[in-house]
Amino acid sequence: DLTYQGQWREAIDRLHSTNNFPEFTGRLCPAPCEAACVLGIHEPPVTIKRIEVEIVDRAWDEGWIVPEIAAENAEKRIAVVGSGPAGLATAQQLTRAGHAVVVFERADRIGGLMRYGIPEFKMEKRHLDRRLAQMEAEGTEFRVNVDIGVDITAEQMQVDFDAIVLACGATQARDLPIPGRELGGIHQAMEFLPGANKVQE
Is residue 64 helix, strand or coil? Predict the structure, then answer.
């Protein structure tokens, strides 16, 4: 309704009130809500996915999305293990609340599934990189190539941090026992996609 009324600045504020990264969800969500929209009974359904992307893209173009620096220091040091969407959203909220947040990622770049599991044609990595720059400007610290439990023990993490958030994701593939699975050239998505995405960078 805000976009219909031309209130785009209010629309991004409303969108951000429940979603840290609408440019990710607007591009990646399969939008089952559109197929279920009751408006679709008599006319085209609300294209909520497209509206979400339009709001956030306009907000970036207009310069409305800027770093939000915490007003005061909450004096807690918090580790976030994993830099996928859950880890990044958690880190951003905690940093904005004034905590000193460090995000640990075992891969060589931040982003988790969004970096290495989503093809470039589905979501260009510039959208991710733009948000990471905003988060760094807000004070979130990122550490890559760190495998928690191997490079740093859980005990050391408990000494170094007041709280630890586990947002590790699920990288264990689920195989399907179906005819033809044993044939050559058939790969799990997470075996194939990281290499394919690294070629794009």
Answer: coil
Burial of residue 108 (CB within 10 Å: 0-12, 13-18, 19+) is exposed
Print pLDDT tens along the chain (201 aa).
999 999 999 999 999 999 999 999 999 988 888 888 898 888 888 888 999 999 999 999 999 999 999 998 888 999 999 999 999 999 999 999 999 999 999 999 999 989 988 888 899 999 999 999 999 999 999 999 999 999 999 999 999 999 999 999 877 778 888 999 889 888 887 777 777 667 666
H-type alpha helices, 8-105: 8-16, 22-28, 32-36, 48-62, 85-96
